Amino acid sequence: MLISILAISVYNSLNSISVMRNFANEGFVADTLLASKSLVKANTESDVLVSTAADSLESHLFGQRKLSAKYMKNLLEKHRSHIGCSVSYEPNADGKDFMTFQSLKNVQANQHPERAGAIDAYNFAENKSQTPINTWVENTEKGRFLCYFERVLNNIFVEPLVGTEYYEYYIGVKKNFAENKSTETLITEPYVYNNKTLMVEFAKALVFEGRFVGEVAFDRDLGYIHSMLNSLKSYPESEFFLITKSGKIISSTRFPDAASLSIDDLFMDSQGEFVKSFLEDKKGKLLRNSEKAAHVDFAKLNPLYRDILRNITNDSYESDKTLTFNDNTKNTNYALTCTPINPGNWILVQIVPESAIYMNLNRATANIAIEIGVAILLLILLFLFAGLFTKKIKFAMETTEEFAHGNLTCETQFVPQSSDESNKLLNAIHLLSVIFCKMLNEIKKSGDKLSDYATNTNSTAKEYENVVKNFDSATSEIVQLIEHLKINSKNAYETLVSLLSVSFDAESLSQNGKAQLSQTQKSMQVLSEKTQSIARRFSLIEERIKGITNAMEALKSISSESALLGVNASIEAGKYSSNSAFKKIAENIASLSEQTSIQTKEISLTVNDLRSIAEDGNTDLNEFSNDINSSKEELSLTIRNLDSSMKNIENVFPVLNKMQDDMSEQNLYVTRIQDSVVFLNKSAKKSATLLRQIDTMRETLNATIHNIRSELSKFKTRE
Q1: By C-alpha distance, which of 331, 324, 227, 325 is closest to 272?
Q2: What's residue 257's pLDDT?
Q3: Integer Cα distance of 505 and 503 in angstroms
Q4: pTM of whole model > 0.85?
Q5: In CA terms, which of 197, 475, 476, 582 is 20 to 30 Å from 233?
Q6: Domains in the chain, ordered, with CATH?
Q7: What is the mean pLDDT of the chain?
């Protein structure tokens, strides 16, 4: 009964824990929905604001540029949650671009803005601007109405609106008009406007007489949205992600720098930090740089939050459910829930550690566990109290059962004067146990003696068995040692034969080497003689070359004199044809010619001698080369024979070492045989002693068995 009550209590407690857990999850979802309501309220405010402004600018103020600008400034002053607002026209949409441009030119010339009927569309007299007038002139396309009011701290400045050709606030509303959606408010993707402010814009088309004439927009600073998310945290550990369904991050309290980033580029490092090394700012958007990304190993980065947010944008998660995941960078389990934000086509995601959500549940669970523990303790005490009444009867039954199973050591606690039946039973059991204990003590003593004798007998038998085994082992070892001796003797004989063979081979090779060296010596003498002969021939060639050199010097001298005489002859011939001087010169030339002929013949003879000597020298060189080759072969053969002899001599040393090892091993075997024979002698003596001990133990064992039979014969037993 008590156990049933305890089980019901545990079941109810566990059911309460489950209910409280569901309640905690529902509370987490409700907190996220409550936070989303604040964002929906803010977006609705911006939607209503831009719609109201569009209606006024279309129906009452179109073409009144100065009043339109003043109206937009007043709206921005009243709605301080917006960072800026704009109103712009298509080029010359109201036909007043020229007059507006003339006003800008007047200001540029330091003249009154409205001189000569110009239109001061931006009311420079009342509105301050941080943009130089020259930039106004350049950026307003010849007077196009491009008015933007920007909040800077507590001041509002008028600036020329930029980016109509590429920013979504203008291209998007123009597209809506083309698709007949001009009544819808466009909420842009997050971007940085004019390299200044990270924002989202609420924009709407201006339509006049059925044609698109411009746009009106109000800007929400992402810093304001980020501050709002931080203020909406349900738990101190909460983290918010505000994303668009197209996959852009508007704001994140977990990664503040990820605003305007595509979800697909959201990665963490091993420490859980946002990785942006492969990203860059392009026209106000944080985009992937393909060159930088090529050097990043994305497999080593953590895509946990990328995958979670991607699944949310793919409608994989239900907005009223709580899901869990583990962030291994923080080793923490998180709970997640999400809810849509309209207007805006956004999704708000809240992520909180499970420990924060279930903090109160954990406390309640601990209290329930304590209550269950107390109940179990009370139940145990109740069982102990009930056991006091049945302990005596239970003890008598347990003692009888123990004696029945042969356990006579149990204490039989009884009171001699008591007439309690259980006490009488315990008394009878006590007397019976005393008698059996005495008998069993005697048998135990005899059994102890018998056990000791049996142990001694077994020990002696084992020792005898070991002696026999050792005897057999020693005999086997002797046989093996004799076999080793036989093998070593055979090896020694073979080693001696090999040593003799090597010695004979070494002697034969030594004699051959001696003969080869003698032949090589003779060949070297012949080579020496041939070398001397060749040296003599080269000496003759050197003398002939000196003769040729002298002849060449003589020819050179004759050539010089001939040239000089030729010049003189030319001079004399010019003076007169017949003259004794000219005749003398001619004779000298003839003499020089004869000397040249003689020297030429001597050179020819010398060259012939050189050719003959060179041919003889060439023949001697060829013979010398053949002799060198022959001597080289003889010398190589001699070296090979000497190498072979050295190898044979080297082979003798291992053989001698092997013989020494074999002789040492034989001595070792002989020593071991002697030790084994001595051991055999000792083992034989020990075997005789052990056999005598076994006979004595057998006689003692027989006497002990006779005593046990005598004790057991005193008891009467049933046949």
Answers
A1: 331
A2: 85
A3: 5
A4: no
A5: 197
A6: 1-222 (3.30.450.20), 425-710 (1.10.287.2610)
A7: 76
384-387-392-396 Cα dihedral, nearest 10 degrees: -110
Give the type of residue at 655.
V
List, in sequence order, every residue forming a beta bridge with 211; answer none if it has no partner.
Answer: 208
What tokens does 92 get?
Answer: 């010359």
Q: What is the pLDDT of residues 256-273, one digit of tens each?
A: 888 889 999 999 998 889
Surface-to-core class of residue 259, CB atoms within 10 Å of its CB (0-12 exposed, 13-18 middle, 19+ buried): buried
Q: Which of 82, 60, 329 is nearest to 222 (CA)?
A: 82
Peptide bond preceding 343: is omega within 30 degrees of 0, i.e. cis? yes
| Residue 391 confidence class, pLDDT cut points 50, 70, 90 | low
Which among 172, 201, 227, 185 is positioned nearest to 83, based on CA atoms? 201
pLDDT of residue 389: 44
Q: Sign of the C-alpha dihedral, residues 226, 228, 229, 233? A: positive
Number of residues that make up the chain: 719
Element (H, E) at 719: none
Whole-number Å distance between alpha carbons of 206 and 129: 25
Determine how many CB atoms are found less than 10 A away from the CB of residue 11: 10
Give the integer Cα–Cα distance in Å for 121 and 68: 8
Q: List, as one string, the DSSP characters of 154-212.
A: TEEEEEE---TTT-HHHHHHHHHHHTT-TTSPEEPPPEEETTTEEEEEEEEEEEETTEE
Q: How far apart are CA 114 and CA 111, in angstroms?
A: 9
For the chain, first and last CA: distance in Å?
A: 52
